[in-house]
Amino acid sequence: MSEPEIEDNVFVGIPASTGIIIGKAYVLDRHMICVLEQSVPEDELDAEIERFYEAAESCRSEIREIADRSRSESGEDIPSLVFDTHFQILNDPSVLSDVKNIMVERRCNAEWAIKVLLEKYQTSFSKIKDQYFRDRLLDIEQALTRLQRHLIQGGDGGTLDDLTEPVIIVSHDLSPADTIQLTPGKVMGFAIDVGGKTAHAGIIASSMDIPAVVGLKTLSLNTRSGDALIIDGNAGEVVLRPTTAQFVKYNKRRQKHLYYDQAVHAKKHLEAVTTDGVKVKVLANIESSQDLAHLAEHGAEGVGLYRTEYLFIHRSKWPGEEEQFEDYRKVAEAVKSNWAIIRTLDMGGDKLPTGSDYMDMAAEPNPALGLRAIRFCLSEPAVFKTQLRAILRASAFGNLKIMYPLITAPEELIAANALLEEAKGELAGEGIAYNPAIETGIMIETPSSALFAGHLAKLCSFFSIGTNDLIQYTLAIDRMNEKVAYLYQPFSPAILKLLSQTIMEAEKAGISVSVCGKMADDPVSVAILLGMGGLRELSMDVHSIPRLKQFIRSISVKDARAIAERALEMTDAEEIKSFVMKHIGDKTREGLTAEFAPDGD
Q: For the whole model, what pTM was predicted?
């Protein structure tokens, strides 16, 4: 069966926030800014540098004011992460020093020095494959472009807070400052040329509960303010100047989505119990402690994956033990009777830090197979132990667990646990409280760890399967390379066999096992996973939780077991997917299943 042909006025991007909306476009042209190089006489250079630092301070003040005003006026808990990121970039001594050094070396104006530094970052980031860290380049571009605009125009150059009617924002890019100044009720959705699912436009859209599609490439160049527009945040489609037939088609989709979404969210706090009485715990993947505010409102039952990398980027030095402890303590206190799994630093290789001169991590020819994750941590034992001490101290305030990423051999797990025991001994000697029985687990994300799961299960308390990397490493494909994206097959028989074996070995050893990769929030995958044995925990983006819990309540483990057994006998990925979709039928509903792109962990 051939794929339906995409119509000329349909732009396909990356779904960043679910929902379907029909409205009028408002084109925000913030991407292009004219910067000219000007020679600065030596006797005027100090004054130019002072102008630069004053502009940076003004920008930081504006960001603080915008954040405070937004919280005061809306009364909503907009994630402060989107403000903190830009503020930290414009307050980073290494970034400011780099600009100053360029000004001195080239005897040029501040605007041009910023342009030179931006080009340096763009060249560096072009070698990074991890989407989360590539999206952080947008943060740097937005923050430094804001500073350029301030130097040129004496201010930010306009806001969106004077919109007079509800509109859909269309832009090449959208900064946190742009999104946060919007009058509540006046923005219906975002359609953005650049970015991935972790871009701030998507984060803000989700927090505002409006649809967003990013990565649309040329939409802003083809759109005029006032054009009719349809955003389908479920499918990642934007329709420019829709025909009558398209309007009818997407309006029907929208009505179905709204009906189902309302029904699902009304039951978000109900447990995910299958029709034959099996409880499945549904947890959240979070990027920072700022995301904790969204756990309860989406029905999350704890944290299945806390990515700690954000604490280590946009900095001029390693985060200290006290700073990390305070952050992890917030997580421990927030989960109360549930638990939170803190993943130790997963940095290196294709996850190079940004604006962080303290990390001596050079680009590698094959970064996905290089010095990253647990390998990097074991090569920097002092840094690793500092993080372990901080997590241990926070464990006295709530139920925390420690998880090591990219474990490929028992030796790595043994070495990591040895450092953990050293940290415990130090804290005990200092009279500092911690949970001596804290559980430790590993991410299963390589074929070697899956194949050796039986032995690894004897050395830890739990497994968490990171399906995104497991698929990438097993099928030997770069999950961010569009040229081989078609080979990224979650339903490959090889993948299903590794998953089945891992789950079986965990069950035999009596340890818990969960899935925290993208397969965890896709009903087609879950229908197979729940039938593979003792898998009773899933962890995902908080916004996927209500729908996934509803799906689990609609199926039985008995049926899932029959589906998994048949799927494991098949030899074709598409055949497996079609078979499962046929058997789960309308349990998926409109907007519940979608082709999922690999991202994150």
A: 0.70
CA distances to 21, 209, 214 from 191, in Å: 11, 14, 6
Task: Say which residues have a Cβ less than 8 Å from residue 466's Cβ, sequence separation at least 6.
Answer: 405, 443, 444, 445, 516, 517, 601
Residues 323-347: what's their mean pLDDT? 94
- CATH number for the domain spanning 123: value is 3.50.30.10
Report yes or no: 472 and 368 within 8 Å, Cβ to Cβ.
Answer: yes
Answer yes or no: is pLDDT of 103 > 60: yes
Task: State both tokens at 328.
Answer: 């992890």
Look up 516 and say whether it is catalytic: yes
Residue 131 included in any domain: yes
Q: Whose CA is closest to 527, among 587, 598, 596?
A: 587
Residues 336 and 403 in one domain: yes
Q: What is the distance between the terminal CA atoms of the chain, rounded to a whole angstrom? A: 32
Instruction: Report the domain count for the chain.
Output: 2
- Spatial separation of the C-alpha atoms in residues 388 and 425, rounded to whole Å: 12
> What is the arithmetic mean of pLDDT over 113-138?
75
Q: How many CA atoms lie within 13 A of 346 on its CB side?
A: 24
pLDDT value of residue 592 = 41
pLDDT tens across 524-573, in order? 999 999 999 889 999 998 888 998 999 999 999 999 999 999 999 999 99
443, 464, 343, 339: which is closest to 395 by C-alpha?
339
Please indicate, yes or no, whether residues 359 and 447 belong to a single structural domain of this protein: yes
Distance CA 574, CA 317 (A): 48
Cβ 533 vs Cβ 509: under 8 Å:
no
- pLDDT tens track for 352-384: 554 445 555 555 666 667 778 899 899 999 999
Task: Give me the catalytic one of 59, 108, 377, 516.
Answer: 516
Q: Please indicate whether residue 162 or residue 517 has the higher confidence score (pLDDT).
A: 517
Of the residues 150, 200, 294, 298, only one is catalytic, namely: 200
Is 377 noted as a catalytic residue in this protein? no
Quick one: 95 and 182 in the same domain? yes
